[in-house]
Amino acid sequence: MGPAAEVVSRAYGVRLGTIGFLTTALFVTHLAMQIPGGKLVDERGARNLGTVALAVIVLGNILALLVGSFAIALVGRLIAGIGTGVGFIAGSDYVRATVGSASAQGLYGAAGVGGGGLAIAVVPLATPLLDWRAPYVTALICAFAVLVCLPLAPRDRRRGEPLRRSARATTIDIVADRRLYPLAVAHTASFGLSVIVGNWAVSLLQHDGYGRRLAGAVAALALLGGLVTRPLGGRALQR
Question: pTM (2 decimals)?
Answer without folding.
Answer: 0.79
